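Re: that chain you flagged

S.,

Sorry for the slow reply, it's been a week of failed gels. I finally had a moment to sit down with the sequence you sent. For the record, here it is as I used it:
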Amino acid sequence: MGKIVLVTGGTGYIGSWIVKYLLERKYSVRITVRDKSKTKKFQHLLDIAEKENGDISVWKGDLLKPGSFDEAAQGADAIIHAASPFTLRIKDPYHDLIDPALKGTQNVLNAATKSGTVKRIVLTSSVAAIYGDNVDMAEQGLSEFTEDHFNSTSSAKHQPYSYSKLVAEKEAWRIAGDQKQWKLLVINPAFVVGPSLADTSDSESINFMKNVLKGKFFFGAPDLTFGYVDVRDVALAHILALENEAAEGRHILSERTLNFMGVADSVRRCFGNKKYRLPIMRAPKIFLYSIGGLFNVTPKFVKRNIGHTLKLNSTKSKVKLGLKYREFDDTIRDMVDKMHHLGIV
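Prediction finished late last night. Pasting the structure tokens below so you have them in one place:
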């Protein structure tokens, strides 16, 4: 694999760790930003590059602008496309999520083809492209979700973030199938947690943990199960997919599945029971129907997700990529320690 790698979304929660690992491995890294004058967003990456005596350059790129990534892709050997919005504060699902995810994927992958040099693309997708609601597993008669499954229940109105990841990944596979210049690899992480590399972060993962620690769920935590994976493991999986010539297809990343009380129990093991206002009980599902609006969830979401089990098969990431997952308690400890350092909690 060549040494020039373009990383979209390189300033983000996952992307920053990807860039760090690439620099440590002496790749020549290109990152894209919408506004190069806002150096605060990528200064931490420049600092890492200086420490590692690494090669990093900053290019302009806009997910919604056709041709915006063409210049940055010229001469690159590979692209890691990690840029895609993740927000729960949605006013317009197309403007906030779907258009940037879909059009951004089109623009980046088309730039790769135009380059004539890109041979491999690693796309950051999500388990949200594999399933939409936890109840999907039971409704489809499954004992677990694997890379063979695609989300069939999300839409712009129900689970719009999941829908944005689905349509973007499917478009990536369509574009990949129409050309023979580069190979597509896809990373499908569960809910990403762990320490932020930047000194500031507006990550939904950080917001989630802040809510857990500061007592938003003190009187009742939803019986809502997610898969969880360390941000550093997600970043490393991208590097492994980049470097392993035999790697192919999609890769679910999940260290384990837990409900909110399980996350709180991990915090208790790491920091004791008195330091934070951790949940003291599960909230009854019937109660969540009446207060779901406070948590930005609809009655349909409550019905199809609360109390339903979830199992994600991440064997392929271990066997084919050789990924070794960090223990969940170590992830939570490092994440909360970094949040203390940043003054978030």
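What I noticed first: The first strand starts at residue 4 and ends at 8.

Talk soon,
D.
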